[in-house]
Amino acid sequence: MPGVAELYRRFAEHETAGRSQVYTEICTRIAEDAEVLAFLEELPQAKRQPNLFLAAVQYLCGPTRDWASFRESFAERRGDIREVIVSRSTQTNEPARCATLLPALAALPQPLALLEVGASAGLCLQPDRYGYDYGRVSLPGEPVLPCRANDATPLPSRVPEVVWRAGLDLNPLDVRDPAECAWLEALIWPGEEERLPRLRAALEVARRDPPPVHRGDLRTDFTALAAQAPPEATLVVFHTAVLAYVRDPGERTAFADAVRATGAIWLANENAAVIPGCEASAVPGTFTLARDAQAIARTDPHGSWVEWLPA
Fold first, then answer.
1. Which InterPro entries does the entry link to (predicted)?
2. What is the CATH number of the domain that holds 106?
């Protein structure tokens, strides 16, 4: 594992660069600030991640403007910030990721039974409830999720038919709880504020018919939940930015084996390095969309573009 300073330098270089100038500056400065680094090093290793620290400050202190305001907020509320970090986890629930999954979902035998692991509030469990704009193809619905797609992407003509949906998460977020929704908003980066109205609209859709997200661990509780899917539907197990938090490669492999044992279609939208059996090269700042461990596309982690790979 890299040291905390190196962790934040890498995050600035490979994750926030070109996306959030504010977070790029802040993470670069954190890597040089002995007091902030000492605070982070006192946390459990799994709680030192940049997204969690940055979101905790926004959650307590409002939108982050620059390094000076961030550093001031840290100095004034470091105890409260620590409590949020310890009690919360990174649960970014970006509904726009559905736009990168939709071409794969629409190509499957219908109807579908969707099971998402690491589902957070379940906003990615409702791809059939949104509209989409791929430029040359648009599908009606609200909110509309814009997504740039290369010519090779098999754009769908309709949303998939979903007859069953369920999520699994260590700490499901309740779309009807204002504090839970505020945490999801705090996970949005400065410079990407256009994601905020989309998140709020998706939360409103979910409140009308909340996707069921069950409390549980993908390592131990997946198989029992998968068994509840209706046999007449195509079972699709999917996840985005989840396996990186399962640190033991053996446990990731065991999960992949459990998915295969169900006979489900497996869609992983992750850093390629953490997808068991996937031979695609990892590209910093991008995800690989893999079907049954075979890479089929490169995607933006926040769902703004998809590039289908040659067959």
1. UCP012608
2. 3.40.50
Which tens digit of pLDDT belongs to each residue from 112-135? 999 999 999 999 999 999 999 999
β-partners of residue 149 are: 306
Q: How many domains does the chain have?
A: 2
Tokens describing residue 90: 């990174």
* pLDDT of the residue at 2: 67
In the block, residue with structure tokens 């053996």: 250
Cα-based distances in Å from 184 to 39, 54, 89, 178: 24, 12, 11, 10
Is 154 domain-assigned? yes
Could you read off the pLDDT of 15-69 as tens digits, one per residue?
Answer: 999 999 999 999 999 999 999 999 999 999 999 999 999 999 999 999 999 999 9
Alpha carbon distance 6, 206 (integer Å): 38
Q: Note the pLDDT tens digit of each residue in 220-240.
A: 999 999 999 999 999 999 999
Asked if residue 281 has pLDDT above 70, the reply is yes
Q: Tell me which residue has tokens 């069953």.
A: 164
* DSSP designation for 211: P
Q: Which amino acid is at 147?
A: C
Asked if residues 145 and 303 have their Cβ atoms less than 8 Å apart, the reply is: yes
Q: Is residue 163 part of a domain?
A: yes
Give Cβ neighbours of residue 161 (< 8 Å, ≥ 6 apart). Answer: 110, 111, 112, 128
